[in-house]
Amino acid sequence: MVDPRLERLERHLTRLKLVSTRERLDTLLDRGAQNEMSFLDFLDLVIKEEIESKDQKRARMRIQMAKFPLDRRMEDYDFSLQPSLDRRLVAELETGRYVANATNVLLLGPPGVGKTHLAIALARKAIEQGYSARFIHAADLVYQLAAASDHGALDEALRVFARPHVLVVDELGYLPMERRSGHLFFHLVRKRYEKGSLMITSNQPVGSWGEMLGDEVVATAILDRLLHHSHIVTIKGESYRLKEMRRAGVVPAKEVAG
């Protein structure tokens, strides 16, 4: 026969939305009894595990909402293949202080050096610290902003992209932008200025952004806001994919001088 107190407790836990505690109630009670916990220690255990469960659930939801195209984590990044990377700066970014200060992050370097990996991993780390994030390719971003503008809904689209604590804009500069696209991107940068972190990956040095964005004046206005509070991470190594192809013999190995 089920103890009526246990049934009542389960109902109360359901009403209070303490889902993890309700699901693990028998296990928690057994742990408390086996370890002869005091009432205070047992209550501390229950609340601690419930909070951890809720935090993990929120993090999973935020990761889904971030729309990462790949599962990339900091522990999977091979720093030995990119010796030019400033590891102290990356470690600082892992703390999440840049998010708290609405500081931007520019990840610059040639294709294939791991910029997108770093961006996703850092944004994921921010999510684990309780922040929200969103990932989008630059081409998709300007397309969505242009479509919203055409339908008189640009302000709403800008509000959507201004909402996350971290907005990752990937591959800015891989495709040339029309002048209008550069202007729309400026509106987004202005909307997020000193309110949220923009994390941008690009294969173009900032000196080329005027040509890339189709308007030198707009590029200057964008960079003025982006660089005011920013960390610039520059990677100068060779493409991971090219290294793998060399290793597999698909492309010739580099000639060694001398």
Automatic annotation (TrEMBL):
Q: Name one GO biological process term.
A: DNA replication
Which InterPro entries is this protein grouped with? Answer: AAA+_ATPase (IPR003593), DNAC/IstB-like (IPR028350), IstB (IPR047661), IstB_ATP-bd (IPR002611), P-loop_NTPase (IPR027417)
Asked if the Swiss-Prot or TrEMBL record annotates the protein with the keyword ATP-binding, the reply is yes
Question: What's a Pfam family in this record?
Answer: IstB_IS21
Q: What SMART domains does the entry give? A: AAA
Sequence ranges assigned to domain AAA+ ATPase in this UniProt record: 101-233
GO molecular function, a single term: ATP binding
* UniProt keyword list: ATP-binding, Nucleotide-binding
Q: Which family does it belong to?
A: Belongs to the IS21/IS1162 putative ATP-binding protein family.
Name listed for the protein in its UniProt record: ATP-binding protein
